[in-house]
Amino acid sequence: VATQGVHKGLVGVVADVTAVSKVMPETNSLTYRGYPVQDLADQCRFEEVAYLLLEGELPTRRQLNAFRKAEAAERGISRALIRVLEEFPRKAHPMDAIRTAVSFMGMEDPEGRDTSVEATRRKALRLYAKIPTAIAAIARLRKGLRPIRPKPELGFAENIFHMFFGKVPEPAIVKAFDASMTLYAEHSFNASTFTARTVTSTQADIHAAVTAAIAALKGPLHGGANEAVMHMLKQVGTPARARGWIDDKLEHRALVMGFGHRVYRSGDSRVPTMAKYRDEVARLRGGEKWLEISRILAEEMLARKGIHPNLDFPAGPTYYMMGFEIDFFTPLFVASRITGWSAHVLEQMQDNRLIRPLSHYVGAAERKVVPLRARG
Ligand code: CMC
């Protein structure tokens, strides 16, 4: 029921100002602190982008070296956390596992109760460094394998492959993964970022905000879509079945995962760049079948519904072809988005006002309490 003055889903509501990123649906473009995201993905390493989001400027070589060194030094996770991870049920979704791991890291953090901007900046670096280690440990432990220690001499992307698989693939695969990290890093007031800002607005700490943000990211309408896309492509199975499959979905008015966006109406700015890297990974890993199914689904969705794919559509099969298990796709999104969330947490802290909207009541009219004994 539409009620006047109510903005269901906060559609079209501008909730605050931000200097972190700008989404421009009219031109299908997105900038991080003024730089087009596709240029960052092609020309920079994810570490540079992380620095840009956290510090506001692209680093000089000297600044980047110091940042990388600081991150590499913080990659280790505690024995206590590993013991906690070992106790998680094997069937647990990795998003639930990383959410709980981040919550635990908050209790262990050496500056746990310090919510100053300076301490929060240091905590953000620790989260950025430790989250991939925890995710890879979760992946190994649930298979009964020992976690692989991070290697400080490896770059951010290389180290993730090392911790998941014990080896680093060829540079083109690493570049595709690194670019996906950049494309996933930040996207203004999406649901998880707004959640992180809402928690921060109560003066709670960054681990609390990030734990809540991970919870918000899990849902299939948000970050969980990259996993849902791969399940969908596998369900379709072969290019020959793609048209019939989509006919059936649209007939039943079902959602087709990886399509549509609240802000972009004529295409997600990140898709062409991610699709370029996906295609390269498919060439190297022999995944042309997924490209062909994707091409048919995108063509049909556009022709019949006028709906374009979003970033999760090319990202899902890219991670699959790289060898990641499907339920780790959204945790990989976390490893990237921690940078955007942290930038927003810091921004919210520095110009805070409690986020507390109103609601329009439509429940029962005021009535008298009948005592329990008289209620029958
Ligand atoms: N498949 C089929 N129909 C769709 C889809 C879709 N993926 N997306 C939108 N529609 C339909 C929708 O049902 C509605 O139809 P009707 O007017 O007949 O009720 C119409 O298009 C307009 O929907 P909308 O107002 O654009 O939807 P919204 O802004 O409330 O929701 C969305 C945006 C992303 C939640 C939605 O497009 C969706 O559920 N997509 C699938 C999930 C997905 O891929 N999510 C990832 C989002 S982007 C990256 C990220 O955050 O991770």
What does this protein look like?
The chain is an all-alpha fold and 376 residues long. The chain folds into two domains: 32-216 and 327-350, Citrate Synthase, domain 1; 225-322, Cytochrome p450-Terp, domain 2 (Orthogonal Bundle). Helices cover 58% and strands 3% of the residues. The chain has helices at residues 37-43, 46-55, 61-73, 79-87, 94-108, 117-141, 156-165, 171-184, 191-201, 206-217, 225-236, 239-251, 271-285, 288-305, 312-322, 329-350, and strands spanning 21-24, 29-32, 35-36. Strands 1-2-3 form a three-stranded antiparallel beta sheet. The radius of gyration is 22 Å and the shape is globular. The relative contact order is 0.15. The model has no long low-confidence stretch (mean pLDDT 97). The chain binds carboxymethyl coenzyme *A (CMC). Carboxymethyl coenzyme *A (CMC) binds next to loops. Keywords: Acyltransferase, Transferase.
How would the blueprint of this fold be written?
Layout: E1 21-24, E2 29-32, E3 35-36, H1 37-43, H2 46-55, H3 61-73, H4 79-87, H5 94-108, H6 117-141, H7 156-165, H8 171-184, H9 191-201, H10 206-217, H11 225-236, H12 239-251, H13 271-285, H14 288-305, H15 312-322, H16 329-350
Antiparallel strand pairs: 1-2, 2-3
Helix pairs in contact: 1-8, 2-16, 3-6, 4-6, 5-6, 5-10, 6-7, 6-16, 7-8, 8-13, 8-15, 8-16, 9-10, 9-16, 10-16, 11-15, 12-14, 13-15
Bound molecules: carboxymethyl coenzyme *A.
Q: Work out the helicity level.
A: 55-70%
Can you tell me the CATH class of the largest domain?
Mainly Alpha
Average pLDDT works out at 97
Question: Structural class of the secondary elements?
Answer: mainly alpha
GO cellular component, one term: cytosol
Pathway: Carbohydrate metabolism; tricarboxylic acid cycle
Catalytic activity: oxaloacetate + acetyl-CoA + H2O = citrate + CoA + H(+)
Organism: Elioraea tepida
